[in-house]
């Protein structure tokens, strides 16, 4: 090799080495993460000796259940979470589909996707376990509605359910998971086995969870209309990369089981385990106070303010251990609650004194990171122990749609998120 050739070879080597050492300015794909965009907190079925019906069939057999949910965040890929948490036998899902929801029992046909589990079209879930589907490509908008269809080929008791869905589900004979419109033989107002929907989102996405009882679950809100207060809060936060999850369970209590396990038992599962969790709103305690002396808990002991405060302090400590902001919400007025039902005695003057003591502690103790005064937002200024009539659903316990909206609009978003 002559001198000229050696010079060119050396120059080429230097160029190669320089290129390898120089930083790359090519755009790299943004890393994505899975975020829960919708939940329905799982509950175990209760026995027939409880005052309220389960509102589910004895079993599902060779039937398809189609359930619709409005998501919080949108995304380009979706997966679903099914739960057999309270089953004592394996749960077999013969087939499952996900699609954008259409009208009623229908779907947007072009959006229909077959769900698989480890590449298989069916799955058997062990007792006590959940399962995640494989991801599918499905563009879902923020506040979009998604339908999940599950085929149950063998006799299947709905051992894991969510009692108060505020959304109509449809049941039809045979495997109709891919049907454009499910031919329904019956409907449900409960959830069965479907506990979460997840989407791929930016890694900085945050999550806010509302944990509570029927006033968070949305009892008495208009069916199929998404008018619960967490729904309205979700609308207020659209565009901020924040998921809002409703972990309410109608009838839930802080300290005791029955309509779902107590808040202390489910706090990790329903709140702290959520990806991107940044804040939790706690609105719970009215059932602890009021079930005593009613058919809901005829032999239960009276709950005092001090009992609830001990429970709240446990939730606060556990949230802070995970660096999660925890916001306390005052208990809403309930004078006259359920007085024209078999649940007479739900409200008494003694129970009201406990509510007032609990609310005073929430407002003034400084132990929560922030406070939302739902009591002040919903009470009648002329009678502070009652809901404002315009906000009352009619049972004097649960707000109606207008009351739920007023609750959500009363939330200071900066205080909720801890931002200046």
UniProtKB/TrEMBL annotation:
Keywords: Hydrolase, Signal. Gene3D superfamilies: SGNH hydrolase. The keyword Chloroplast does not apply. Pfam families: Lipase_GDSL (PF00657). It comes from the Bacteria. Residues 1-26 form the signal peptide. GO terms for molecular function: hydrolase activity. InterPro entries: GDSL (IPR001087), GDSL_Rv0518-like (IPR053140), SGNH_hydro_sf (IPR036514). Coiled coil: none annotated. This is SGNH/GDSL hydrolase family protein. It comes from Lysobacter cavernae. The lineage of its organism: Bacteria, Pseudomonadati, Pseudomonadota, Gammaproteobacteria, Lysobacterales.
